[in-house]
Design goal:
The complex is a heterodimer.
Chain A lengths: L12 H10 L4 E5 L3 H9 L22 E5 L7 H10 L5 E5 L1 H5 L21 E3 L6 H15 L6
Parallel strand pairs in A: 1-2, 2-3, 3-4
Chain B lengths: L4 E5 L11 E7 L2 E8 L7 H5 L8 H5 L6 H16 L5 H29 L4 H21 L8 E2 L2 E2 L5 H26 L2 H7 L7 H7 L4 H4 L7 H4 L20 H25 L21 E10 L2 E10 L4 E7 L1 H6 L2 H5 L4 H11 L3 H5 L1
Antiparallel strand pairs in B: 1-2, 2-3, 4-5, 6-7, 7-8
Helix pairs in contact in B: 3-4, 4-5, 4-11, 4-14, 5-6, 6-11
The chains are: A alpha/beta, B alpha+beta.
Chain lengths: 154, 367
């Protein structure tokens, strides 16, 4: 604190809430396929996403704010993804991780894959890659934080 | 009349290793019956393979057992190369062998980390992933991919090993050997780990054979069966390594066996890395411009040892650029089908540990 500084900062309640919710995004472990392993790697020691406020992966939808859909969503799995999404409390966000979740990816010729999880749940951030690297997932989470705080990317 | 409780575990559950459903019939806390529902990750990879050129199908094999991508590629390639009468240069074969064993280590590390998580042990998980990250750095240097590498190609490998990669592998092994003992000690010095695993999930050898179980699950029941030894592919007959078995038949025996197998993998890599000869790293018949013009005719079945057991690939060609039929013998499917037998009469909490010990990968089961 500088000399003569009162140590007071004024802000609005909305901004304070946004700051709080952006910096405590607790993800839900929605590991469906290959991308789940990279999601685990993001959580592990080398690329610890706890540094960005996503402190811990919760296994219960009731305790989480962010659903990272990691892996191919099949037509059989889609209703269950939707149900878990509906069980999450507001405010809630969804990250689509990997090309399978964005538009079908390598399985686009198949009959059993949902061509994009955004047909089932609303998606906030898309992360391309097959699978995306942990760095990409970290960047996706940072992008989501900016979105929550109504900041623009550039 | 006995009163039963039915409990659904999954499909989205942190302990079931993927997305599959266990419907458990309980008498108080004792498991009477387990019914497994599969198919939540059915991506019809086998059917899509019929639409693609031979060289393009690598992608789908990478994503079957997604933590053991190199061995999946190897399974497909040994089949396709047999179909096309393609010879692989010696250098490429040694490189393939090193990469397959490195990926086996990486896959085991994921398995052990997740096995610890099932019992609430968080520490080994982080240590396992630190080491796995180092293996992935080697993969990135060699292939550009971290996990789904797409490194091997028909008639050789995508890119040659340079001195940097060989040095990296040597350095990694030197660091990894004591680190593995550390991770092993973390498990073995835990009282809870012993109590949850010793004598749990007993699998008799005759039951294992009846169900077609392979891999560490079969060797954990005391039967020394390993494709690398019994039907050697690549140069597995030119290196010294042992097939460890365990007569304990339970979770604890299988865990010790898996760690011992990792030590044997290190031995294989150490021997192969000195034996890499100079020469071409791909067959000229399969160079990149010719890759999509390769034709296959006839039918062939080939098998490799993946982290879960015997991975077999059946390919049938009709003389065109695309396979007529691709079929996969999934070891994880056979392994998971034995869970109801192992879990019968155990407590409900033991089911989670048994699933962790069987260590299936759902991508390979549902395909």
């Amino acid at each position: 604190m500088k000399n003569g500084d009162l140590g007071i900062k004024t802000t609005t309640i909305e901004k304070a809430l946004e700051w709080g919710s952006a910096n405590s995004l607790w993800p839900l472990t929605m590991g469906l396929a290959c991308c789940a392993i990279e999601m685990m790697a993001t959580q592990a020691a080398d690329l610890d996403i706890a540094r960005f406020g996503s402190e811990i992966f919760r296994n219960s939808p009731r305790q989480s704010d962010l659903m990272i859909v990691a892996g191919t969503t099949t037509k059989r799995m889609a209703p269950r993804v939707k149900r878990v999404y509906e069980e999450m409390p507001y405010p809630k966000y969804v990250i689509a991780m990997g090309v399978c979740v964005i538009q079908g990816g390598p399985y686009v010729d198949g009959y059993s894959v949902v061509m994009g999880v955004d047909k089932v749940v609303p998606v906030d951030v898309y992360i391309p890659g097959c699978p995306p690297s942990p760095q990409a997932l970290t960047y996706g989470i940072m992008t989501l934080q900016k979105k929550i705080k109504h900041e623009t990317d550039r | 009349m006995a009163h039963y409780t039915e409990l659904n575990i999954g499909p989205i559950h942190p302990a079931v290793h993927g997305i599959l459903k266990f419907k458990v019939k309980l008498q108080e806390e004792i498991i009477e019956d387990v019914e497994i529902t599969l198919g939540f990750l059915h991506r019809n990879a086998e059917k899509i393979c019929e639409l693609n050129y031979y060289a393009d199908n690598m992608v789908y094999f990478d994503r079957m057992d997604y933590i053991d991508a190199m061995n999946m590629e190897l399974g497909y390639l040994t089949a396709v190369e047999k179909l096309m009468d393609m010879e692989v240069p010696e250098r490429a074969q040694w490189i393939r062998m090193i990469m397959a064993e490195l990926n086996r280590l990486a896959a085991r590390l994921v398995g052990l980390g997740a096995f610890g998580l099932d019992m609430g042990m968080l520490t080994p998980f982080f240590h396992c992933f630190i080491e796995r990250e180092k293996i992935q750095k080697i993969f990135v240097e060699a292939s550009g991919g971290r996990q789904e590498v797409n490194y091997m190609s028909i008639g050789g490998v995508y890119q040659d090993f340079n001195d940097q990669i060989i040095n990296d592998i040597r350095e990694f092994l030197k660091e990894f050997k004591p680190y593995l003992e550390d991770i092993y000690g973390m498990f073995m010095h835990s009282e809870i780990f012993w109590q949850r695993n010793d004598g749990i999930g007993i699998l008799e050898p005759d039951v294992a054979l009846d169900y077609g179980v392979t891999g560490p699950l079969l060797r954990g029941s005391g039967i020394a069966y390993d494709v690398r030894k019994d039907a050697p592919y690549l140069f597995y007959d030119k290196v010294n390594f042992n097939i460890p078995i365990s007569h304990k038949k339970d979770n604890m025996g299988r865990f010790i066996l898996k760690v011992e197998e990792m030590r044997q993998s290190i031995r294989i890599i150490e021997q192969s890395i000195d034996k890499i000869p100079d020469g071409p790293y791909f067959n000229n018949k399969a160079k990149k411009s010719m890759m999509l013009r390769l034709k296959g005719d006839g039918e062939v079945f080939s098998r490799v040892e993946s982290e879960n057991g015997e991975f077999g690939v059946y390919v049938r060609g009709n003389g065109t650029f695309k396979p007529w039929r691709v079929h996969v013998r999934s070891p994880a499917f056979k392994n998971i089908s034995v869970v109801p037998v192992m879990a019968k009469g155990m407590m409900i909490a033991d089911l989670i540990v048994i699933i962790g010990s069987v260590d299936t990968v759902i991508g390979e089961i549902d395909r």
